Amino acid sequence: MWQIITNNWGAFLTGFWNTILCSTIALVFSLILGVFFALLEVAPPKFGRVIAKIYIAIFRNIPLLVIVMIFYLIVPRYIVKLSGFQAGTIGLTLYTSAFIAETVRAGINSIGEGQMEGARSNGMTYVQAMRYIILPQAMKIVIPPLGNQFVNLVKNSSVLAFVAGFDLMYQAQLIAFSTFQTIDTYIIVGLFYLILTLPLSYYMRHLEKKLAK
Amino acid sequence: MTAIIEFKHVDKYYGKLHALKDINLKIDEGQVVSIIGPSGSGKSTLIRTMNGLEPINSGQLIVTGHDLADKKTDINKIRKNVGMVFQHFNLYNNHTVLENVMLAPKIVLKRPDDENRKIAMQYLERVGMADKINSYPRQLSGGQQQRVAIARSLAMDPKVILFDEPTSALDPEMIEDVLEVMRYVAEQGITMVVVTHEMGFARKVSNRLIFFDQGHILEDRDPGEFFDHPNTERARQFLSKIISKD
Ligand SMILES: Nc1ncnc2c1ncn2[C@@H]1O[C@H](COP(=O)(O)OP(=O)(O)OP(=O)(O)O)[C@@H](O)[C@H]1O
Ligand SMILES: [Mg+2]
């Protein structure tokens, strides 16, 4: 097993790096998009609600691979050229953002109507009530399911392997193919994923405890 | 006397349900108005239109000089002058008692911190909650939460405070503490509109009584006269039920 690692160290490292890069970009932007569409879905204007519902319905109900393929095969043909890595990262971002939007929306909706009414009757604007009263309470509730979404995101970044995104899973396929050591290779790759997902889960749990105080 | 709240032919529907029927009502500055009536008659709906929590469908509703039915009216401006106290308190669960009272004056009125704290402490002392300023709402009893909620309203220095059954969710031994604070509010000359089942308060503290039934104002009179001689059969029935319950 050691030999596989030492002989393919460069490939593993490239894969690891690309997985980290893709996950980080997708995490940041899916969080931004997810929160944005959640806010749009709970806000009073009907138009925004409809837009948010459509967005979420589309990206939540299509397999991730199909979304990525759209960005890999169709978008480059008509709109803009995208590498496998770019197509995969965009697809993963949109896909995950729909789940995050649903998670955040559920968190906001779990805060009783009375909190908003209390704040509005006290003279606060809708935005102030959201910022000072609703969202801080919703955040506590949303952290644990959000942690799950993040871990899923890191694992789902392996979709890059299908579009030559040079991530861990892609390198694993190449290495397994050239060395014929399929099982060992995938065990090593699994360990690499753990290096990312375990600290992430741990950090989210830490955040949960900190906010609970 | 100038009217601080005025309904002119106001109608309100929930879908097909006609909740408020052609309401005409003038409330003057400094009045303490009690609203009583059977469950589901529309008392909450009526009081919640007064600060725009429920929109009206037709007519005019003028509060502190602004027409709530007018789309150009800035509702937040009106709410600076019109506080509300709820049956279930609705304190901010993520803030301490002191923060609950200080938050809106800080971000809505932009009141400077030291002055804000002084005013907040003064009202919290008045409602008997000065020793709990660092507690969170979940750590307080219902009666304590309601007294903080009244202090929170008072800290905005409002012209009007609306009360929707402020003692209905409280254990009997807590009710008196809250009523005592409400008597104090009345003494400050703040206009009060109070939906209540507390007939003692309605009779002794308020100076006007509205009996509400099926979306209508059936009686609008001096409380003492109303309780001694209700004009309508509906009011007589309602009173006899309440009195036999006590
Ligand atoms: N948000 C709503 N949507 C639909 N119908 C409503 C809504 N709020 C109240 N209603 C209906 O409007 C009518 C008046 O309700 P309202 O809550 O104003 O009565 P109430 O006099 O305050 O009763 P209670 O003494 O039980 O609090 C009732 O028939 C009620 O079912
Ligand atoms: Mg009611």
TrEMBL record, chain A:
Q: Where is this protein found?
A: Cell membrane
Q: Does the keyword Cell wall biogenesis/degradation apply?
A: no
Q: Matching Pfam families, A to Z?
A: BPD_transp_1
Which membrane topology describes this protein?
A: Multi-pass membrane protein
Which GO terms label this protein's molecular function in UniProt? Answer: transmembrane transporter activity
**Single biological process term from Gene Ontology:** amino acid transport
> Would you tell me the Gene Ontology cellular component terms?
ATP-binding cassette (ABC) transporter complex
What InterPro entries does the record tag this protein with? Answer: AA_ABC_transptr_permease_3TM, ArtM/GltK/GlnP/TcyL/YhdX-like, MetI-like, MetI-like_sf
First-listed, main subcellular location of the protein, grouped into a coarse class:
membrane
Keyword Aminoacyl-tRNA synthetase in record: no
Which positions, given as ranges, span the membrane? 16-42, 54-75, 186-204
User: Which residues are in the ABC transmembrane type-1 domain?
Assistant: 16-204
**Domain of life of the source:** Bacteria
Q: What is this protein called?
A: Amino acid ABC superfamily ATP binding cassette transporter, membrane protein
Please report the organism this UniProt entry assigns to the protein: Lactobacillus gallinarum DSM 10532 = JCM 2011
Automatic annotation (TrEMBL), chain B:
Residue ranges annotated for the ABC transporter domain, each copy included? 5-239
Has the keyword Nucleotide-binding been applied to this entry? Answer: yes
A Gene Ontology molecular function term of the record = ABC-type amino acid transporter activity
Q: Cite the CDD domains for this sequence.
A: ABC_HisP_GlnQ
| One Pfam family this sequence matches | ABC_tran
Q: Which domain of life is it from?
A: Bacteria
InterPro entries under this entry? AAA+_ATPase (IPR003593), ABC_ATPase_HisP-typ (IPR030679), ABC_transporter-like_ATP-bd (IPR003439), ABC_transporter-like_CS (IPR017871), MetN_ABC_transporter-like (IPR050086), P-loop_NTPase (IPR027417)
Q: List the SUPFAM superfamilies.
A: P-loop containing nucleoside triphosphate hydrolases
Q: Which keywords does this Swiss-Prot/TrEMBL entry list?
A: ATP-binding, Nucleotide-binding, Transport
Family membership noted in the UniProt record: Belongs to the ABC transporter superfamily.
Q: What is this protein called?
A: ABC transporter domain-containing protein
